[in-house]
Amino acid sequence: MEEDIAKVLISREELSRRVAELGAEITHDYEGKSVLALGILKGSVLFMADLIREIKLPLAYDFMALSSYGASTQSSGVVRILKDLDRSVEDVHILIIEDIVDTGLTLKYLKENLTARNPLSVKVVTLLDKATRRQVDVFPDYNGFTIPDEFVVGYGLDFNEGYRNLPYVGVLKQETYEVN
Length: 180
Ligand code: IMP
Ligand code: MG
Prior knowledge:
This protein is α/β, with parallel strands linked by helices. It has one domain: Rossmann fold, CATH 3.40.50. 23% of the residues lie in helices and 31% in strands. The chain contains four helices and nine strands. It has a six-stranded mixed β-sheet. The protein has a three-stranded antiparallel β-sheet with strand order 1-9-8. Helix 3 links the parallel strand 5 and strand 6. Helix 1 (12-29) crosses helix 2 (45-52). Bound molecules: inosinic acid and magnesium ion. The site of magnesium ion has 3 residues, from loops. GO terms for molecular function: guanine phosphoribosyltransferase activity; hypoxanthine phosphoribosyltransferase activity; magnesium ion binding; nucleotide binding. Its cofactor is Mg(2+). Keywords: Cytoplasm, Glycosyltransferase, Magnesium, Metal-binding, Nucleotide-binding, Purine salvage, Transferase. It comes from Candidatus Desulfosporosinus infrequens.
């Protein structure tokens, strides 16, 4: 597994430091409120588990699953809800937790879909932002790291469901995912 990694982009220590900062910022911004942390399966799971323990607020969590890439590394632009929320979100402050915002297509769809359910607010925290790849006008409210346009895996992010359990974010060697 590690032999497929070209380089470590964000180390375990950097992840942990930045996640603590994000948690403190969110705690501060939502003072006096409670939040619904909404993890987007499956990539956000490791980030979410660490982040919510740094958020010192009343908090519930739930998950949604959306289709984005399937087995490839290219966005299809088609978003489908594979698993929806368990409850109504009226009168709830929703904090979407994403692993990475790439084209922004997934997030744009999701924000519109959730806003239509009349929550008190919808904000987004993403671990990674590939800002140069954005195709639609959508921005995370909190961002861990802005990264270059390289395919990354680890700390929840996958290629073909693999590499999610790496404790760091690494760049996958091109020969691992290029089909000739
Ligand atoms: P978007 O709709 O193009 O913004 O796609 C976002 C989703 O694509 C993320 O939630 C990831 O599942 C996936 N994705 C985008 N870039 C990467 C990457 O570099 N590594 C792993 N997954 C990625
Ligand atoms: Mg994925």
